[in-house]
Design a protein that fits this description.
This protein is an alpha/beta fold. It has 2 domains: about 110 residues; about 180 residues, 3-Layer(aba) Sandwich (Rossmann fold), CATH 3.40.50. About 30% of the residues lie in helices and about 15% in strands. It has 10 helices and 9 strands. The strands form 2 sheets. The protein has a 5-stranded parallel sheet, sandwiched between helices. A 4-stranded parallel sheet has the order 3-2-1-4, with helices on one face. Strand 5, helix 5 and strand 6 form a beta-alpha-beta unit. Helix 1 runs parallel beside helix 8 and helix 5 crosses helix 10. The termini are far apart.
Length: about 325
């Protein structure tokens, strides 16, 4: 008897936030397989203790399952198929719901006893390169979620001035922000495999990241994490080791643009790229500029080990 489970959506972060549901099946003693929804979700199966394996969605045939097998499709639920999360209608019908609330409700309706308040870290290999360092995760599939380049550089400079090393992780071929910061000499460590990124992040003293899959992975691993979100984010998660900073509200023109990119389907597995949109405002007026460097440092100060003496001094950037 086997259980197959497909994450809430196509991205790496969607897989990571769905892991407590996967863990519930494993803990119940079932041979559990993840149905990966895009190439972005491949590379972690071998690091999930107790997982029997994974299968790509295009190659998965629910109709061919055995009599005792079960398929849990976290997308096949009215909360997923009937709403665009974060839309006015969703906020009206489910006020205050965030991703753990959504997943808890879906799992309950599917008969899964998942505990989203408890995270079981994935196995990793310690990485000396990240020891005692703060890892930066600036890359994201949506530029509208990006933090200004100058803020990352200032954060690195101020932490370094306090004797705290910084290291950036991300794929330059997939992220304009990562490419730009590499060109500006921000320390960067190549991670060709997703498992390489997992090892490095899991070995860090702390993480600062935008709303992206690797940031959700850091949270899952129990690493002190300062996550930088847009206003009223659905994917925000609250744990003792996390600090969540939110931007000011989006401009109306940005909200209209984001709703115009709504979709609830997948395309070809290998070539799938998420639909995205770009902020409609000049860079210095974008909502993410409202998150200040001093705010980030003060949150790190609370979460990092006591051996680090971080000081939130006066910002050089007038917007922060």
């Amino acid at each position: 008897m086997a259980a197959y489970i497909a994450p809430i959506s196509w991205g790496l972060g969607d897989l990571v936030v769905s892991l407590p549901a996967v863990q519930a099946l494993i803990d119940a003693g079932q041979a559990t397989y993840i149905v990966t929804r895009s190439h972005l979700q491949e590379g972690l199966a071998g690091r999930i203790p107790g997982l029997a394996g994974s299968v790509r969605e295009p190659e998965f045939e629910p109709a061919a399952l055995g009599a005792g097998d079960r398929y849990y499709n976290l997308r096949d639920h009215p909360l997923q198929t009937g709403y665009w999360w974060g839309s006015p209608q969703f906020e009206c019908d489910y006020p205050g719901y965030t991703i753990n609330d959504i997943l808890s409700r879906i799992c309950l309706d599917l008969g899964l006893q998942a505990d989203f308040g408890t995270l079981k870290p994935l196995s990793h290999v310690p990485c000396r390169q990240a020891k005692d360092k703060v890892v930066f995760l600036p890359g994201t599939d949506g530029s509208y979620k990006s933090w200004p380049l100058g803020s990352w550089l200032e954060l690195s400079e101020r932490l370094s001035g306090q004797g705290v090393g910084c290291l950036m992780v991300g794929q330059p071929e997939a992220s304009e922000a990562v490419r730009a910061l590499i060109s500006l000499a921000l320390p960067w460590s190549p991670t060709p495999l997703l498992s390489d990124a997992l090892d490095l992040i899991s070995s860090a003293a702390g993480v600062v990241g935008v709303d992206t899959g690797l940031t959700h992975l850091a949270v899952h691993q129990g690493i002190p994490t300062v996550a930088l979100y847009r206003h009223r984010p659905v994917y925000v998660r609250y744990y003792d080791h996390t600090a969540n900073l939110q931007a000011k509200p989006c401009a109306e023109e940005c909200t209209r643009s984001s709703l115009g990119q709504c979709y609830n389907h997948l395309t070809d597995f290998k070539s799938f790229k998420p639909q995205t949109w770009h902020c409609q405002l000049p860079e210095d007026l974008r909502c993410m500029t409202a998150i200040g460097v001093s705010d980030v440092i003060s949150r790190l100060q609370r979460h990092l080990p006591a051996r680090f003496s971080l000081l939130a001094g006066t910002s050089k950037n007038p917007r922060t």
